[in-house]
Specification:
12 helices, 10 strands, about 45% helix
């Protein structure tokens, strides 16, 4: 088994798509988002917010009407409606046991498109239906449910279970925890622990948005070589943790605080990559 060292800024900097003068909103990456529900509309708002601040060309949202309204209040540039996308983010803020019929319709349509998938929360089970490069983002309990294995077993050996799940499910697994592990069954990386203050509602929704944006901006690369998802997922986790560190400053944080600090983290990585003058930093 090939195991890479702890993932840090130097590694993450290689996975930031810097915009070029010739780019437009379509070439910068379009992320399709099917998240939230009537019960949990805030998850959709957080995911869209985090994705927008990570840097991409457009976000298309398909979901519950209440979530649409809240997203437009927060991010009026988001497009409410179907269309061509470079990647899908699906599942945050959904109940896996009772997904809304409209969500099922949107998910089924998305699965017919040959673009990469990011599956979170209430759509992790969709991994059994995908045919394109896919990354899932479970925590211990969610992976336990997906695999039918004890939670305690997964919590006691998260690296091993991330690797095993990736091989069993045929996808890339980002297993969230005090230390996050990303594996495609062959390559495994660890990302340093984020501040303990990050253990708060909405944290996973923000991570999904960051990851969705990175996958959308690297869609062609992922379709050509799905092993690219390991680096993108690890980079998403790094950005998430670093933004939490900045937002916290040693104290409590909210997830929208975290989102505000995503652009400066992307700028830090762009500077390491030698392109800080060209990276975009969305306004508050």
């Amino acid at each position: 088994m090939e195991t890479e060292p702890m993932w840090g800024a130097a590694e993450a900097a290689r996975h930031i798509a810097l915009p070029k003068d010739s780019d437009d909103k379509y070439s910068r990456g379009v992320l399709g988002v099917i998240t939230g529900s009537a019960q949990y509309p805030g998850a959709a708002v957080i995911g869209v917010e985090a994705a927008a601040r990570t840097g991409l060309g457009m976000i298309r949202y398909l979901g519950a009407q209440r979530a649409e309204n809240l997203i437009l209040q927060r991010r009026p540039e988001a497009v409410m409606g179907d269309g061509r996308v470079q990647a899908w983010l699906i599942g945050s803020g959904m109940d896996h046991a009772s997904r809304e019929p409209v969500a099922e319709e949107h998910i089924s349509a998305a699965l017919n498109q040959k673009v990469p998938m990011v599956l979170d929360g209430g759509a992790l089970d969709v991994v059994h239906r995908v045919s394109t490069p896919t990354v899932i983002t479970p925590h211990y309990r969610e992976l336990s449910r997906l695999l039918g294995e004890p939670v305690d077993a997964i919590a006691s050996a998260p690296r091993d279970w991330a690797e095993s799940a990736a091989r069993t499910l045929g996808c890339t697994v980002l297993l969230k925890g005090h230390t996050t592990y990303v594996s495609d069954g062959t390559t495994t990386v660890a990302i340093a622990a984020a501040p303990a203050w990050l253990a708060t509602a909405g944290a996973g929704d923000a991570l999904g948005g960051i990851l969705g944006a990175l996958v959308a901006t690297h869609s062609d690369e992922v379709l050509a070589d799905q092993t690219a998802l390991v680096g993108l997922a690890a980079t998403a986790s790094y950005i998430h943790g670093r933004a939490a560190e900045l937002a916290s400053g040693g104290g409590p944080l909210t997830i929208l605080d975290l989102c505000v600090h995503v652009p400066p983290v992307v700028a830090e990585l762009a500077a390491i990559a030698g392109g800080s003058s060209t990276v975009s930093t969305p306004a508050c």
